[in-house]
Design brief:
With 66 residues, this protein is mainly alpha-helical. The chain has one domain. It contains 3 helices and no strands. It is elongated, with a radius of gyration of 12 Å. The termini are far apart.
Length: 66
């Protein structure tokens, strides 16, 4: 769907903690486990969950110093 979804579990994983490789991985896994995605002609539920993980990880990694 085109509706953004809030992932409270990922927020909890990150709130008040340092942004580390481990915390990013936990937040990405939480994003992938967020329910609500449905299959349609643009992508299966599994694909949407995988992309939620990948995009969350990329976004958070872009915030860390290189």
């Amino acid at each position: 769907a085109n509706t953004p979804a809030r992932c409270n579990t990922a927020e909890i994983e990150l709130t008040g903690k340092a942004l580390t490789t481990a915390s990013i991985a936990r937040a990405a896994a939480a994003a992938a486990a967020t329910p609500g995605s449905r299959s349609d002609y643009r992508g299966s539920t599994a694909y949407r969950h995988a992309m939620a993980s990948v995009l969350t990880q990329r976004a958070l990694e872009s915030l860390t110093p290189r």
